[in-house]
Every structure is written in C-alpha cells, then in structure tokens.
Records
---
Amino acid sequence: MSNNKDAKPNILLITVDQMRFDCLSIAGHPVVETPNLDELARTGVRFDRAYSATPTCVPARAAIFTGQSQVHHGRVGYQDRVPWRYEHTMPGEFAKAGYHTQCVGKMHVYPARNLMGFHNVVLHDGYLHHNRNKYSIPVREHYDEVDDYLHWLRQQVPGADLTDLGLDCNSSTVARPWHLPEKLHPTNWVVSESIDFLRRRDPDKPFFLWMSFVRPHSPLDPPQAYLDLYKDADIPEPPVGDWALQSDPALDGLSPYTSKGIVPKQRLRHAMAAYYALITHIDHQIGRFLQVLAEYGEKENTVILFTSDHGELMGDHHLFRKSLPYEGSSRVPFIVNDPGNRLGLETGKVVQEVVEMRDIMPTLLDAAGVSVPDSVDGCSVLALAADTAGKEAVPAWRAYLHGEHSQGMQSNHWLTDGKEKYIWYSQTGEEQFFLLTDDPKELHNAALDEACLDRIAYWRSILIRELEGREEGYSDGGRLIAGRKPLTVLSHIRG
C-alpha cells in the first residue's frame, strides 16, 4: 500500500487484558517502564480519564465489538457461553468497507471460533475454565480444539500445557518466571503472528488488525529478564482507604485466587513486580511490531489505538482483580496515535473528558472514513484529540458515564465525570462518594460528609433515572431499590 493520504489508512487496535490506567511511565508511575507506549502517547494523544463501564473481559469486549453501552449489548456482568449475535460489529463494518480484517490473540466470545466479522482469527483466549471442562461442553468447543496458540506451543514443546507453571488464570497474587524460551511466551506469539499477517495480507487493501494480548492478566509469568528489572525496585505499597477492610479474619489474603484480603507483604510485592514485568514485556513486543510495520512501509499509513479492556486492583484497598468500580479496576490507559498525521491530532495532548470502550468502534471507523452504524452508542474521540489551536472549541461531550457490574453481593452501579464518583451497591444499598480531583486514590469515602450531601443527591437522582425501566427493578423512577436480583445478561440477548 503506497503512502497516499487520500487512500484509507490501515487501522491497528492494540488491546491488553487487565492493565491499570496508571501503569505508564508517561502517566507518572514511579516504577513501571513503558518506553514504546510512552512514545505513542508523546507523539499522539493520551486520554487520562478512560474507563471500562463494565470492567470484566466479556462485557468490556462486547462494548469494543459493538460500540454499544452495556444496556444495549446486554452484558452487565461476567457470564460465559452466551452466544454472541450482533448485527453490526467493528470488524464486520471494516470488512464491508473493503478492509482486510484480522484478529490475533484474545476474543473471548462464544462460540470461541465465532469470527465476529473478521476474515480470520488466530486465537488465544488464555485459560478459560468453561472451555477446559471436557465433561460439560461439546468437544468442538474444548480448548484443545479451538485455541491456536496451544496447538502451536505443543508443536514446539510436545505435551506442553497452559498449567505447566502451576499458576491458574486467576492466581492474582502468585507469580513465577516463564519457564520456556521467551519466544514461546504468548505475548511474543501474538506479535509473531501479527507480523506474519503483514506478510500474508492482501496488499491491495487497507487492513484492520486487532492485536489482542492476554497479559498482564494472570498468570503472572513474565520472562525472567523482565522480572529481574523489578526485583530490587522500590515498589510503593498500594493505597488503602479509610473505608477499606482493616483486618482479614477469614485469611482470604492467603488464597492464590483472592479478590480481597490482606496478602503477605513479600508475596504481594513479588506479584506487583511480576505484573509490572508483564507490562514492560508487552511494551517491548509492541515496539518490535511497530519496527516491522515501518520496515513494511506501512507505519505512516496506520492509525493506532492502544487500550485495555479493564484494570487490576492489585492490592488497592486490599482488593484484587476487577469488576469493582474503583479506579484501579475500571480506569484504563487509552492512546491514539497517527504517525502519518492524517487526522490533525494535537501531539502530546492529554484529554480529560471521560471516554469508554464503546468509543473505540466509532473512533476507528471515523479515522478510516467508514460510516458508523446507528446501533452504536459511543462517539468518536477524534474531535477531542484534534489540534484546536485557532479553531472552534471542542464539541460538547458526555457529561458522565454510567458503569455497573453484576456480581452477587458485590453488584454495583457507579457514575463518574472524571472529577467525582458515586457508587451504589445494589444488594445492600451502600453508597460511596469520592472527590477524585482532590482524592485520586479514593482514600476517603465522603458519602456521609455534610459538605457533599447535595452532590450525592444529585448523582443519586441521575442513577435513579438511568435505572428506571430496567428489568431488574432497581429504580421506580423516584428512588433506588436495593436487594433486587442481579442479572449478568439482560433478557434481550439471553436467548
């Protein structure tokens, strides 16, 4: 493809799984090293208030694929094995517009080999429990049958499996180094397969490539060289708010699968080091791909968007993993880069407006000059990223984001404008309120502060309106109603 600004650009979407918003050197993290992502942000635009409205893998990816809010794509919690049937998907729209479309890595859809509009998928979803149970699923859906990385790995190392390290995919506080040559790590594999796509693509078409990494989601298994980068680092302890649990009588923190609890300090520090190491490993592999993209003469023709599907609490407030509304779980990195300067972005700009997973599809279609379907709820972020010097002001943006996650007694709804955050736990009625501008680490729950009562009432009224008419019955239009049965999937897609 020639460097022709009148031709449609290639589109490269890079996603990682479970990366916190603050794990970028350019965002001021005191330890983690991300030189290639820093360069994408330095020469592009970084969105500092990006969120995942329903912060676990399945609903977040539904938002990416469809551009819809959780109310419309219907996945308001984590539930596997619910068929994905959407009329309009991001890869489908690119394919209809003449793009050669490819995904490498994680999809996390059902059935697992559902193309979702891609011409081809080279699949590695990571370890998914429902795909490993040979006695409860059809053989055609078993992991051994559907996962391309595992087939490839066993060609390199006969008998190899994803469990060889003794780490589960939800071992949130247990870490050890990758035991095989680095080139066999799934992070390297995603990049190697993506490079191979550059070789095999149709040269007469622009491409849409989704390079989708499973890490830094556990297992926490970085190659030794990356773990060594952090073994002596001065890693700050996670923040613990005045509202967080202060003791752990059930010893939940000793479980390798814990989502809450007080973890022994040495174990937690090692887990944090491994988590940062996985991020730096991904960063270097992204650099590897961008170098090859330049060698193929396509970097200047490619618009790049980098993000994560959700975050990782990693000990914040003695909490781990995701699904909760706190910043470590719900807030993500989000970078747009345009090496060919097609889009008129303001280099180095940091945007404060609240953006979300649903905005990815319209943004990338907009960058390619492809029509956005009416089914899409999100908006293109390109106007926010544009160089506005001497031009009209940025158009009005969403005033707030409504997020939620169904998860038993921890089921929650939340609202934020990036400056304040209101949280309502739907099963207990507990409210939390954080002044993010002054308290970015959510150390103080201001829900009972006299000075904040009017603001809490304001946000509560918005949530009452957002939930009115929802099938769970959380709102009657005048008040919030706690204790209603939470749903993970709304009825319009449950079938």
---
Amino acid sequence: MSTLLEEVVQAHGGIDNWTKFDTATAALDIGGAVWHLKGQPDMFQGIELTASLRRQHVEITSPTAGWQGTFTPDAVRYGSLNNQAAVERRAPRESYQGHTQQTEWDRLHALYFTGYALWTYLTIPFLYTYPGFRTEELPEWHENGEVWRRLKVTFPDSIASHSREQISYFGEDGLLRRHDYTVDVMGGAQGANYASDYRNVRGVMVPMSRRVFAYDEARRKVDEPLLVSIDFREIDFQTE
C-alpha cells in the first residue's frame, strides 16, 4: 500500500474499523442533468439501498414509486415491490455497445450504472486496498485555495466501474475532495465528482453530498450543467 493510500485510509476511519462492517444501508436522492438526457429524470429520487462492502451487490428500492432493483456485475434485475413483472438483463455492460452521451437508457441501463457507481462511492478509499487494485501518486493539484494530493487508481477487470483508470484527490486532512473518471457506458463522458459534507458514521468518514461536473482538457471543472447530484439523507454500516 502506498504512503498516500495508507494516510487517506486512516483519515477515513482506518482499515481495521472498516473491516468490521459487511454492509451499508442508506436513504438518498439522486438528480442532475444526466437523468433528463437519459430519459429517466426522477428514477432515483427518494430511494433506499443495501450494499455489500465486500462484493459488488447492491439492492435499490423506491418505496414511493413501488419498484426494487438488484445490481451485480453479471446481472441487473428490476421489478415491482411485489415481485410481479420483473425483468432481468445478463451481461449488462454489453448492452451499452454503440452508446453515446446522448443515447437514452431503459431502466435496466440506469440501474446498472447507478449500482456500480454507488458501490464505488460508498467504498472509496478502502476499495483501493482490495485485491487487484494498483495505485500511483501523481503531482499535487491546486483547487479551491487548497493543495490536493492525487492518486491514480487502476481497477481490476473483475470490478464494474466507470473506467479502468480513475484519479482521486485528497485534501490536507486526508479526506476525498474530488474523484475523476471517464464513463465507458456513456461513450467516454468525463466526470469530476466532488465530495463534501462529511459525517462520522460509526468511525467512518462519509461524504453525504456529491456533485458531478464535466472537466476540460486541463482537468478544470466545467461549472454548468450539474450532471449528477447525490444527497444522502441517512447512512449506516452493519455487521452480518
């Protein structure tokens, strides 16, 4: 584990504390321009989730809209809360072949994207200590009057995520400030994901708010439009 990774893992609560927990539960709202572009504007408002912290498995429920969905890298399933008229897609990533940033999604497309994205966000930076991940510290970055240390992370093929290579930025306190990636399932769209409003949840520092923008060739944030907003209303960690 690199020195920077060791420091940021400790700042977020420490690996010994993290390994006590097996699952995360949360209530949250997701919005932003991407969902209108993709034809699913309100799908993830007022949702609840349960996520495994050791493997990629996320269950998402919308109590008000009356649906539930399950994400794994190999399959997504969507249906009503009474399990009627459920639909499933195997090898879901293959269904994005030929997609551009403007291609509309069905609900299974949206569920796969949201499932892997939330799982990634909930587990960073501890995720980077899991088997198969490779990290490299990059030169410092100046933004918002702060100096941020940067970690380039190469994901193993076994993990579904935005892209194989991603960059995380950490403040002087060791907490995640920004997370950059390209989105393979959106034709390589770029995302700068800003984390804020930290809360200590059972000893783990969790950003309760995320805001995603595009970035330009110099990696400078493009302020408009707000692509994705994520606001956690509640979050907790459990042991099985």
---
Amino acid sequence: MSDFLLDPDVIFLNHGSFGACPKQVFGEYQKWQRELERQPVRFLQRELPGLLSDARRQVAEYLGANPTELVFVPNPTFAANTIARCLPLGPGDEVLVSDQEYGACRFAFQFAGKEKGFRVVEQAIPLPVESNEAIVEAFWQGVTENTKLIFLSHITSTTALTLPVKQICQRAREAGILTMIDGAHAPGQIAVDLHDIGADFYTATCHKWMCAPKGSGIFYVREDKQSMIEPLVVGWGWGPEKTFHRENEFLEHHEWLGTYDPSAYLAVPAAIAWQNEFVTDAVRQRSRDLARSAVELAAQIDGIERVHPDSFSFQMGLIDVTAKQVEADVLKSWLYEAYQIEVPVIRWQNRTFIRVSAHAYTTQQHIEVLIQALQAIDSSHGPKRS
C-alpha cells in the first residue's frame, strides 16, 4: 500500500473501476504538468509532437501494435463514440453486443443507432460459462446477415468474465464482419497482443490495471481500416494546414483535439516501466490467488455462490449474493460505512454480484474483513433486506 496514494484506512477492493496510480507514476504525471505550465507555447507547439510520438511507440510495443495504429484518448467511451458515429451504418444494419457490455459504450451505439437507423442487438452469454467454445457458440447465435459490427469486451466490467475475443475476431473476419473490442480491463491484468487478437478496432484504459493517471486510454485501428475512421472532434489536424503528422492522416486527424493537458498520456510510459519492474509474475499470481480466495471463502457462506471457474477470471473475482435479498446500493453503502470496504456491488439480469479486485496493495487481511462482512449480512447489524 505504501507505493500507492490510496487511503490506508480504506480496504480498496475496487481497482477495476478507476485503478490506482503509484506514487512514482503520479510524480511523473505532475512533472509533465509543471513542464506544460513552465512554457506552454514551447511545450504544446514544439515539444509535444515528439513526446506523444515516443509515448505512443512505447505503448504500441507494450500492446503488440505499430505506433501508427493507435492514438491516445481519454477513455474507451470516447473511442466507442468515435466508432458509433463514423462507421457507415444505416437502416437494416445491426451491431451485435453481448448482454454483459459496459453501459456507457453500449449507450454510445444505441444513441447513434437512433440517429442513423441501425439496430443494437444484445446476445446473451449464459452464466455460468463452461468453455470458450460454448461462449463463442452462444454469442454467435446473434449473428445475422445484417450484422456489420461486433462490439465486445475483452474482460467484462459487469461480470468479470474473460471472453475469447481472438476466436470471435477470427470468425468475424471470415464472415466479413468488423470487430471492436473494449479492453478496458485487459492491459495490465493480462498480456495483450493486438496483432494476435486480430480486432479491427480496440480500445483500452491505461488508468485501470496499467496504473497510469486518470484520463489516459488508447484507441487502436488496424492500418487497413484507418480510412473509415473520422475524428469525433474536428480540429486543426483535419484542415489543409497540417500540424503534427503530415505523413499519417489517421494520427493527424485524431491526435490534436485542441488545447488540452496531455500529462496523463505522457505518464503512461512511466506506468509501463513501473509495471515491468514491480508487477512481476509472482505479484500477478498473488493478486489472482487473493481474488480467487475471496470467491472461494465467500461461497462457503450460506446464500452466497461463485459464478465462474477460476480459468475465466484473473485479478477480479465475482461473488453472487442474490439470495441475500439486499439491494445493491444498500449493500455497497453498508460495506463501506460499517467495514470501510470499497467494492462494487452490481445489479445485472436480476442478480446481485460483488466484484472483488486484487492488486499489489491487497492483503489477505483485506479479504478476511470482506468475508467477515459477508458473514454478518444476516445478523441484526447487517444491511436492511429489500
């Protein structure tokens, strides 16, 4: 915990929502902010193009892509809006998503669909899952001759389920269907090789499991698909007087959105360096063991069940507390107020889940306090039932 800025009085089991930035990386972030304010014109007009280029190069190497295939964005919601607005989708077309997609990104497609006339089709992936092959077959039941785009999470936010995106992207390519993968929870939690996955478009946060500052994400577009992607925000890069990347229209259109603070983007290489030095395989395995321990111990409590086999989750674990009949917001507030546990309680498909995240700062004692709290739900001091 000492490497992070987290409040030591809070049991933070919610790395998945917004991440946590190590002090070392946050210091780099503040360094760039000071550089910006020291001489804004020099920094933004003369130095920033080269700095962003170097940062993109390091991120591309980390994620198995070419530097000219990705740009920084504030978050995956921004990238989802870009795709939903610019792809040539119209009446009769369908965008296929699973029933476990992140709400904000799903809303981006639903909003654009109302304007452009295409449909967003949700296909159920039943829980519990049995195998990757079963997931692919269940999801593919939603594909029709009208399916033009598949939008799918790499690791779902709602259910902490790792999906076989490589297999789905390969099958989609064979069928002539475009694919966009929401990898918000993937980089930093699992190894990501974008060329190996084979998606046409991929977006991810850097501020979650990569532990970069808030407001840093990436938007990857295969080189042969870049001509399809128009900028969500039109700025100087779109005009006849080019600014940064005269040789690459994709970067030119998407990298300069007007005056903004790029410090979070420029600190991402520091986050990668921190990951490489401190988040070893042993640290990741320990974090996975803690998350899985939380699930196993919780499942021994009457009325609480596990959802996924261990092979489908990594540093996040899902606990089903539906049978406890406690409203999600009531349970979340009670866990924080009574035990200082910060953890998401999610309502999905008439079921109530606790999603536990574990990282380098998580301890076995943190898990034990969570289990004590879950054991106390049925007591007179527990949360009020719905």
---
Amino acid sequence: MIDPKTADLPDTTSNDIAALRFKFESGSPAGQLQLIPELIQAGESGLEVLMEFLLQSKSNPATLVAFKAYQTLESANSKVADEFLQTHFPNGIVPLNSERGIDYTPLQQLLKKQDFLSADRMTLQKMCELAGVDAVQRKWLYFTEVENFPIKDLQTINNLWFVYSEGKFGFGVQHEIWLGVGKNFLKFWPKIGWKNGNNWTRYPNGFTWDLSAPKGHLPLSNQLRGVRVIASLLSHPAWSNKSPES
C-alpha cells in the first residue's frame, strides 16, 4: 500500500543521485545554484551531496553556493543535517577571521536575521574597533585608519555582507560598481541609491533595509566629511582578489 505522505515524492534511485552529484560537483556556480532544489527533492541523499560539498569547501566557504547549501541544510528539518552543521559549522558559514582579535559574531547574527539596519550600525562599530580606541570613542573613521585595516578583517566583513545578502551587498560589490563607473563618485552615488539628483538619501528612513535595495546599497559610508574614507575603503588591497564567487 502506498503511503499517502510519500505518494507525490519522486522515486529517486541511486543512479539519479549519482547523476545529480556529478552535475552538481562539475557544474558552474550558477548551475550549482539551479541544482540545489533538485537535491532537496531527492531527500536525505540529496542533503548528503550538499554536506559533502560544504566539507570540501570548508577552508573557503564564503560563496553564494556554499551559503545556499548551508541555508538548505539549516531549514531541512533533518536531524542528520542539524548534527552536521553543529559539528562542522557551529558558528555559521563564514569564517570570522581577524588579525586584531575582533569578534564579528554579533555582525553575523544580525546579517543572518537580515536585520540590515542594525548590521550596518554594527559594521561601523566593528570598523571603529579595528581602528582603535580613539575611533571607538569618536564613532567615525579617518581615511588613514582605513588604509591600515588588515586585509583579512575587511574580507571577513565583506564576506558576511555578501553571503547573507545573496550577493547583493558588501564592500567588494561596491568596489566593482565604483570601478564600473570609472571611480566617478558622482555616478557611483546614484547607482547604489545614495543620491537622487542633487539630493542625498536621508538616513535612516530614506535607505532601503532589505534585499529590494539597489545592488551595492549597503553597507553605508558617511559622506559628510568628504570622500576620502570611502575612496580609501574601495581602493583597499583587500579587493585586489576577486569578490566571492556567485
């Protein structure tokens, strides 16, 4: 007798799984993203493919594919998946590396909830911590402090924004847009929704704090003291490597 709970599920054979595994492992990032729903439909066997993928990419898992795989396992209602994530990724999918002992866990927690307004404020706080006691007290940055930020820390902050926004936000995204407009800030600001004509977007209500925002909209940088801080940030050597792959 057919169990009505499983009557509509596909009959996934070992050959089906083997074919899906091969397509996923050999596919491009875009192709892998398209295959994840098929792996979900394959049940526990499909989840195993995603778990193997995450283990293999654990040394550098800050990609959209890894994030989607992690997100899928987290919401799969599977004891095996839950135990896997708790064992291998207890602090989330992005390695929270810091050369100066900064704890980026609070930022990750806010981004994980997609509380982008609070995450934006936390980002400034963490960057001030990175700059030192004087910056923490004044609550803003000098461009010379930004120039001396460790690559590892900036990449950690960027990777958190990138993966939890599904590739839409982050300094690396802003860097690519800035290069695309020839480093022209007059073109850059409207492109990412910080200015409309002669009018600056008003903080906080004028900004869009969800994924409907323009690409590169977040995180923010204070322009009241000129462009030297954001110019130092967008030209930092942290972006000499490519942004996390899509």
